[in-house]
Amino acid sequence: MKYGYFDNESREYVIDRIDVPVSWTNYIGVKDLCGVFNHTAGGYLFYKSPEYHRITRFRPNGVPMDRPGHYVYIRDDETGEYWTLSWQPAGKDLKEAKYVCRHGLSYAKYQCEYSGITGEQTIFIPLDDPAEIWNVKLKNDSNKKRKLSVFGYAEFSFHHITVDNQNFQMSLYCAGSSFKDSIIEIDLFYEQKGFQYFTADGNIEGNENFDCLRDSFLGSYRTESNPLAVEQGFCSGSFELGGNHCGALRKTVELAPGEETRLVFLLGEGDRQAGSVMRNKYCSKNFEQVDESFEQLKNFWKEKLDKLQIKTPHEGMNTMINIWTLYQAEINVMFSRFASFIEVGGRTGLGYRDTSQDAMMVPHSNPQKSRARLVELLKGLTTDGYGLHLFSPDWFEVQTEPPFKSPTVVPTPSRSQMVHGIEDACADDALWLIPSIAEYIRETGDFGFTDEMYTYADTFDPKTGEGKKESVFDHMKRILDFSARETGPHGICKGLRADWNDCLNLGGGESAMVSFLHHWALTHFIALGKYLKRDVSSYENMASNVRKACEKELWNGSWFTRGFTVSGRSIGSPDCKEGKVFMESNTWAVLSGAVSREHGIAAMDAVDKYLYTSYGLKLCDPAFSQPDDEVGFVTRVYKGLKENAAIFSHPNPWAWAAETMLGRGDRAMKFFDALCPYNQNDKIEVRRAEPYMYCQFISGPDHSAFGRANHPFMTGSAGWSYFAATRFMLGIRPDFDSLIIDPCIPPEWPSFNVRRVWRDAVYNITVKNPNRVSKGVIECMLNNQNVSCNNNIAQIPVQAEKTENLVVVVMG
Ligand code: NOJ
């Protein structure tokens, strides 16, 4: 069953059957102001932090779903009938009303045809202003003159979400609202500079045209579906110091048959003065600035996407890579992982492992943000060499302003509570940072980064900004040394609290995944060190020891064991009844380069045999059915959900990449296809979630909802899908001084094209496959000159900036 389609021309996903089974979300804004909205304009807005600076309120996991939102109500003033431009909250009968939602890149367009009026509300945030614009268009398609009232409505939140949700004895009395000069101002009186505003174009005067109090606008015993003000056709001019506040403005329009009009509502950060500046800017000259800012936003994304565009025989891969997967990966980097409808912003900061991986995926499209994230992570590293599992980057900045003190006494956490000890460390966290740094340098050529000096978390003094400082290169060494030190009785790295798999705790035993990751990080570090002519011989020895330990202790004769519990039980091996085969150890055995090809093939064959399903690869098999605290929390998760044998999306691309390293392009594509959301566009009765986004996990075959996708958008799956598909399957990957072309594709593909911008030069690459092979380059031409191919890989030297280069590669 389908609910929409991909409109690639407009770079939009069009939901033309609006009653989708669950929220289909999108992210609005690309800098400090961010809104998370669904297909019916339900959602919330925040400035910088969804936890400490929430602007509009959201009642998560509520009934009815996804309320409130940023709504535009239309009322026919002759009949009294009203509806909304987004299907909800008015929820008109879909037999009479036509609703479409177009989710674009950082905007959402809600379109409606009802009662002879065609309407549209586009929500977006200009690149450089912290103001959310609702660009409203109305057209009278009936044959009579229409008199309409148009109400814009949003409910404000207390900035601190915990207080907003839990401490009404404070929140209800510490915020006030007022209306003046056509602008509603919300004053969060307890903060020195806590203001929000809501305004619209034109002159708004009179009590009938505004409400600042939610309960006056909605009325008692009512909801957003039937607000009293809209029903009666006028507001009541409410405002108060204290209470629950909203922005509600009423404008009236008269439309002759065929006539169109435009209105703009603005919701933003700052006080009435800031609102007035934005009003002058966006509501003058026939809304020219609105249109210009919208174009700028579109160009912002076009420029990013243009860094890498592919044209392959696989329409789904083209659509996902060229538009949606990069978009999803970028959003994760921009806003971290804690603002969605699932993680509703009450827990924020940077997860060390998640952020490290996210930063690795977009250095070509967002080098500044990737670099900034790397620096934040370097400062969140301890001198012992482990990263802080979850931290706030501002802990490691000099404090310029006194921290906000809530009148409700909440003890300030001590420094030692922020900087946790090894007992709370996850062994994989900081290892991810090393390849991320290497990939950032490969992409940008910013070699000087390795010499920059940064402090360590456990030595940092927030008053002075002082602390032990070392180079980035030295930070990397400490991470590698930590993993070499923290090994268990088999010589395999300890998992500590957990490794990538949050729920596989092993009682503090040993983790194959961490040892493989250690090896992967070592290969990146050694390659970088050698390129920079540094002495890395001791790390070459370290890598050799890791390889020996992995082959000796983890190869179990059939595939790679997942680890050992603290009492020495092996997990993920043939003699286990449950949790016999795991994705992480087998994919990483290959990806890490630490094991023989023969064992790698056997490992990935086991992945195919035990873990493959038509919706992607399961994390492990068989699922755990009995709680076993030595194995970990995974045994207390229902079978087929999350880490307990669900199709966990994030590791799926590891398998695609691993298969390409073994040269099996058809197998990589089989796995890619199974997970690909695009392929499930017509299976929404099963998938339920949006088909333009990867989701954290798909319920596995052990669960009654097999095939259902859960937790969209905020997952590392997007970044890894992008990384694996472009760098391994299509095989276009930057190295320190050359662009490598090393595809591994399904043998039936005759050719494909990639346009790649790298270090400010364009590479128009055609890969031909006349011999219908999966892997191996036999010929390469750069601007009609032969380039030698070593080991069947093409290596294109860096070309001069601003040049357009033609690359033709022949596989065979
Ligand atoms: C989600 C967490 O954010 C991530 O850090 C972890 O790797 C996965 N769950 C798997 O447990």
Structural class by secondary-structure content: alpha+beta
- In percent, how helical is the residue content? 25-40%
The number of helical elements comes to: 20
Taken from the alpha-carbon principal axes, the silhouette is globular
Please tell me the overall pLDDT.
97
Identify the strand order in the major beta sheet: 1-2-8-9-10-11-18-15-14-13
Total strands: 42
Radius of gyration equals 28 Å
The span between the termini is 41 Å
Query: Segments where pLDDT lies below 50 for 5+ residues?
Result: none
Report strand %.
15-25%
Characterise this structure.
By secondary structure, this protein is of the alpha+beta class. Helices cover 27% and strands 25% of the residues. The chain has 20 helices and 42 strands. The strands form 11 sheets. A 10-stranded antiparallel sheet has the order 1-2-8-9-10-11-18-15-14-13, with helices on one face. Strands 19-36-37-42-38-39 form a 6-stranded mixed sheet. Strands 7-6-12-17-16 form a 5-stranded antiparallel sheet. Helix 8 (352-361) packs antiparallel against helix 9 and helix 11 (433-444) packs parallel to helix 13. The radius of gyration is 28 Å and the shape is globular. The chain starts with a strand and ends with a strand. The model has no long low-confidence stretch (mean pLDDT 97).
